[in-house]
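Case study 2.
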Amino acid sequence: MRVRFDKLGIVIALLAAYGVLWSSFATLKPNRIVQGQAEAMLQSLPAWAGWGLVGVLVVAIAAALFRTSPWIKLLAAVAALAALTLSIGYAATFLTPAGNAYARVSPASGFWILLFAFALLAADAITRLDPPPGMRVLFLVLAAAAIGALLMSGSWNGLSIMKEYSGRADVFWVEAGKHVELALGSLFAAVLVGLPLGILCHRVAPLRDGVLNTLNLVQTIPSIALFGLLIAPLGWVAANVPGAAAIGIRGIGVAPAFVALFLYSLLPVVANTVVGLAGVPRAANDAARGIGMTGRQRLFKIEFPLALPVILTAIRIVLVQNIGMATIAALIGGGGFGVFVFQGIGQTAMDLVLLGAVPTVALAFASAVVLDALIEMNSRVPNGARSA
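Prediction:
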């Protein structure tokens, strides 16, 4: 019987082998700031737990390495990820000296490499299964529920990142709310302005180049520079326009962050609206005219529904972009998860940086999965329409 290797599985297996054999699994630090000592996997856990984890990882590596059913690969990846997340929590308890309130245990490079390798295996398996959009969202919900159960169980309470969270729990959720408000609010404003502007650019060709070139120019400005450039004009508005300060318009804070994210969001929304409307088949418009539809009826009943997948793609791009860029808002007092990132950088406390970075990445990933599913659902054309 011929053994067949999986090309991507070879890469995953090499990554995982490196994570197991040559990288440290956990880092024990005397306190939250100093560098600490890296420990290998078998030194980070009791013998039974260490060898048990190695056994699970070896089986998962074998599932990745050879061509097998995507379901087997997915189950192996889930088992490896579950074993890793439980083991790193147990390593924190095992490595922390009894009665020492200052010592911190953090995941080391080997843990992150292994987490990435088996997350990649899970993603590859799901891609090969090609589940319908609803099933992908269900996988996301199950993953979120598993992570929530892990956090609520207290298994990770000994990790440094959770100790950083426990001292800032109230502030964390306040900043999380600000982060979501910035990302979603600027997206909503960009859609509210960008859709009509895109329709206008589609209808009035001479206007199109000027608008798109201007929005392209905005995209070339570095994000930190744009945040800074908006401080002076918004500060002037707050000082000279009655009522502006009362509604939150100031030179620093949420207002310049919101405006910057809004300006960055306009180009994808406007450009994709133009592209989506331009891609509507001419025959569909001719048929709509033939049955007596007005221009407005054609726009809302024919053109816009057909262009919706392209427009939703822009919304997906903007939302993921804004979730990431909202982190920088903390530099000008806008709040969000960036508060923890920049505090951690200033204090050389990397676990505090992770407290801001990890939820940002998770939020962006979840948004991308949900919107990808929504785009695919709106891209499906009924058989009758195809035959027509």
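Strands lie at 26-29, 37-39, 104-107.
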